[in-house]
Design goal:
The protein has 218 residues and is an all-alpha fold. The longest helix is centred in the last third of the chain and has 30 residues, at 172-201. The protein has helices spanning 2-22, 24-35, 49-71, 78-97, 101-125, 129-134, 142-167, 172-201. It folds into 2 domains: 1-96; 100-203. Residues 214-218 have low confidence and may be disordered. The chain is elongated, with a radius of gyration of 23 Å. This is Inner membrane-spanning protein YciB. The chain crosses the membrane at residues 51-71, 78-97, 109-125, 150-170, 176-198. InterPro entries: YciB. It is a multi-pass membrane protein.
Length: 218
């Protein structure tokens, strides 16, 4: 359930974009009729409609994520709050100004924010946020947690740069495919590599001493 909730905005963004891209005239009419008040000039063109509609959907989906967690009494992670601020701010600019550039910067801004938060927390506040999240499940030495935190900092920074490089090098449809499949694939590869490293440094379990079956003196 949590995994589905985490990926819900991305899935809805991709599905909305692909459908609207295949029905541009319908998407433009639908967006202009129902969401014209949110757009400067009140009219959405066929080439703008797919990204504007998918941006609107991802804003609503991210808001729904936070609302669902709140209603269930669950904690909203800092990263989700950052994601919400980014998607509402940059997504809102994309919709109002008819400019897809802003939503393309959203993953870069988000991953840079993650990278900075992890680095600053470790460097200046002596708080390893990755260890805070997973320390109870993985009894790793402090040096290993520092390396894992540094790996996440570097990975997020690389993805941030890679996203904007792709955004400015290809058309919007190709960027959407990269955002959904490329970044997700790179994340999966990174997680596998991280899992291999954790397996190597994870201390072996200490076997429990066998219980004595002998009875004491009567």
């Amino acid at each position: 359930m949590k995994l589905l909730l985490d990926f819900l905005p991305l899935i809805l963004f991709f599905g909305t974009f692909k459908y609207a891209e295949s029905h541009k005239d319908w998407a433009a009419g639908f967006a202009s009729e129902h969401f014209g008040a949110l757009v400067s000039g009140g009219v959405v063109g066929p080439d703008e409609a797919p990204v504007l509609l998918s941006t609107l959907v991802v804003i609503v989906a991210t808001l729904a994520q936070v609302l669902i967690l709140k209603l269930r009494g669950r904690k909203v992670d800092l990263m989700l709050w950052i994601s919400l601020v980014m998607v509402v701010g940059l997504g809102g600019l994309t919709i109002w100004l008819h400019d897809e550039t802003f939503i393309k910067w959203k993953p870069t801004g988000l991953y840079l924010a993650f990278s900075v938060v992890l680095a600053v927390s470790e460097r200046f506040f002596r708080r390893n946020l990755i260890r805070t999240l997973l320390g109870d499940q993985l009894p790793l030495p402090a040096a290993a947690w520092r390396r894992i935190n540094a790996a996440w900092v570097l990975f997020f920074a690389v993805i941030a740069v890679l996203n904007i490089a792709v955004a400015y090098s290809v058309d919007t449809a190709t960027w959407v495919n990269f955002k959904v499949f490329g970044i997700t694939g790179l994340m999966a590869v990174f997680m596998v590599g991280l899992g291999v490293y954790i397996h190597r440094v994870l201390p072996p379990e200490t076997p429990e001493a066998p219980r004595s079956t002998e009875e004491g003196p009567q």
